[in-house]
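Try this one yourself first.
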């Protein structure tokens, strides 16, 4: 008897699905703008690390076509 193939859906690790905090807030001074830039860069680094992590996870868990 032939059975239908089982479909397995792989999910990314939960840590990579957590939302990135929004670094933006109202600024009124030059110092506030600098702080905003620093916060934005930090958030971008976190986001980049998550995307890189997703790619590494995909490359190690998803079968490549042969």
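Now uncover the answer:
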């Amino acid at each position: 008897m032939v059975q239908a193939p089982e479909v397995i859906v792989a999910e990314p690790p939960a840590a990579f699905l957590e939302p990135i905090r929004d670094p933006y807030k109202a600024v009124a001074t030059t110092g506030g703008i600098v702080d905003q830039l620093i916060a934005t860069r930090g958030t971008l680094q976190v986001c980049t690390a998550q995307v890189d992590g997703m790619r590494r996870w995909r490359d190690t868990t998803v079968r490549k076509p042969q």
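Discussion: The first helix runs from residue 30 to 61. The chain has one domain: 14-61.
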